[in-house]
């Protein structure tokens, strides 16, 4: 499967995981992290909050690259009504993991596609259930430092995945980018097409 596009794409992210996932489309793209304050105004649902922050990440990049299609994303973990962002300290990482232990939480990634005549956003949700964790397990994981740059204080793709009992939905969405839904959306927008291959 080979995809082609007439557009230039910019991923508005400093996350190496998003870059890796986006590169699965095998089209050329640039990366330009948007340095914004990750706050959403007003009382929003977690889905709208993730979309709002994802959109904000695209704005400065669209302004300086008016012909490009800019993609921003934001991942939020929430447990019932509480949003668990990136932990501010190892103590907070432990606190988050104690809360997640033995329970089901939502991981929402908002994606915003802006510029070159496109403007569309969506939020994808995955449900993740953790095993009951012991304090010893949590301390040992937090000590690795892996929690610190990740929403909810764990990485499903790293040792944090050892805590996961059930996942319902898109795994890549938990890692930070629902690439299959993004692929389907870009096809629908007709900004990506399949290269016609001559049959032999
Ligand atoms: C739950 C979970 C989150 N994460 C990551 C995804 C996101 O990179 C991060 C949440 O922070 P985000 O603010 O969504 O993203 P970021 O700051 O890493 O990158 P940028 O804003 O430049 O795009 O947590 C994992 O890697 N694995 C997981 O299992």
Top-tier CATH class:
Alpha Beta
Mean pLDDT across all residues, rounded? 95
Strand percentage lies at: 25-35%
- Sequence of secondary-structure elements: EEHEHEEHEEHEHHE
CATH topology name: Maf protein
Largest sheet entry: 7 strands, mixed
> Shape from CA axes?
globular
The ligands bound in this entry are: thymidine-5'-triphosphate
Uncertain residue segments: none
Cα distance spanning the termini? 16 Å
Second-tier CATH architecture = Alpha-Beta Complex
Decide which structural class fits the backbone: alpha+beta
Cofactor: a divalent metal cation
EC number: 3.6.1.9
Protein name: dTTP/UTP pyrophosphatase
Main location: cytoplasm
Question: In a nutshell, what does this entry contain?
Answer:
With 200 residues, this protein is α+β, with helices and mostly antiparallel strands.
């Amino acid at each position: 499967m080979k995809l082609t596009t007439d557009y230039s794409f910019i991923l508005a992210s400093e996350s190496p995981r998003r870059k890796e996932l986006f590169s699965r489309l095998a089209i050329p793209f640039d990366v330009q992290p948007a340095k914004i304050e990750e706050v959403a105004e007003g009382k929003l649902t977690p889905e709208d909050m993730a979309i709002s922050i994802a959109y904000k990440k695209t704005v400065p990049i669209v302004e300086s690259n008016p012909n490009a299609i800019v993609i921003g994303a934001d991942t939020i973990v929430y447990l019932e009504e509480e949003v668990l962002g990136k932990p501010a300290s190892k103590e907070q990482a432990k606190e988050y993991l104690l809360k997640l232990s033995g329970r089901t939480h939502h991981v929402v990634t908002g994606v915003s596609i802006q510029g070159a005549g496109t403007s569309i956003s969506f939020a994808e949700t995955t449900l993740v259930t953790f095993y009951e964790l012991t304090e010893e397990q949590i301390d040992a994981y937090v000590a690795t430092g892996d929690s610190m740059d990740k929403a909810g204080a764990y990485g499903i793709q790293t040792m944090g995945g050892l805590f996961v009992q059930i996942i319902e939905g898109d795994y890549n969405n938990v890692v930070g980018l629902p690439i299959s839904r993004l692929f389907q959306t870009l096809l629908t927008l007709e900004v990506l097409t399949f290269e016609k291959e001559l049959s032999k």
